[in-house]
Amino acid sequence: MIDTVIFDMDGLLIDSEPLWGIAMREVFATVGVKLSPELTHLTTGLRTKEVVSYWHNFYKWDGKSPEQVVNEIIDSVIAKIIASGQPMEGLHYILGYFKEKGFKMGLASSSPLRLINAVLDHLQIKDRFQAVYSAEFEDYGKPHPAVYLACAKALGSEPLDCLAFEDSVTGMIAAKAARMTTVVVPETHNRKDPRYALANMQLDSLLEFNDAKLSLLTK
């Protein structure tokens, strides 16, 4: 019986993907690496250290260590979120919906914990979650299911009893690999990606989720 919901964060609860893109392009430019928006989209859903490692292996820059670049990106994203981060459409609706249903609620993000905490404080939603997990503490990030499995365990839930909400293909694969019923809410420019067919349900907005949709997923 599905009685638990676990949310991704970036691009699903907060409109942070554009801020990540700007921060990455700005910081990478300091080591002579020019990334287009299309290139930054290639690594959506991965942990920051994995993104930096990916591009470091390709461009082999000098001057700053990958660890320094990681920290500069995270610091920049946190600053941008605090300055201008906006909730995604339907954020408060969906959290209120599942609270009213009595669901256990968790967060499973690829972002580092200090960034997660900054977002939750900024949006004033930290008290909505009984478990908050970052993939930075797992051996493998998404698309590996580790962070979802850890979050479910912390909530005292079996994976098959969990509903996962994601916005990226990488995150969707992680949730499906954890054997969770998965709802995807992709960004507008990604909605026609055929890989989202792997999800149990695709929505254009969190506002579209309702009792009828929940019933379809729990039959």
Write up what this structure looks like.
44% of the residues lie in helices and 11% in strands. By secondary structure, it is of the alpha/beta class. It has 2 domains: 4-15 and 86-218, Rossmann fold (3-Layer(aba) Sandwich); 17-84, Putative phosphatase, domain 2 (DNA polymerase, domain 1), CATH 1.10.150. The model has no long low-confidence stretch (mean pLDDT 95). The chain has helices spanning 17-29, 37-41, 48-59, 66-84, 91-100, 113-123, 146-155, 169-177, 211-217, and strands at 4-7, 104-109, 131-134, 162-166, 181-184, 201-202. Strands 3-2-1-4-5-6 form a 6-stranded parallel beta sheet, sandwiched between helices.
Features:
9 helices; Rossmann fold; 2 domains; PGP-like_dom2; Sugar-phosphatase; HAD-like_sf; DNA polymerase, domain 1; 219 residues
In short:
The protein has 219 residues and is an alpha/beta fold. 44% of the residues lie in helices and 11% in strands.
Low-confidence stretches: none
CATH class of the largest domain: Alpha Beta
CATH topology group of the largest domain: Rossmann fold
For the largest beta-sheet, the strand count, sense and barrel status come to:
6 strands, parallel
Instruction: Determine the oligomeric state from the structure.
Output: single chain
Number of helical segments with 4 or more residues: 9
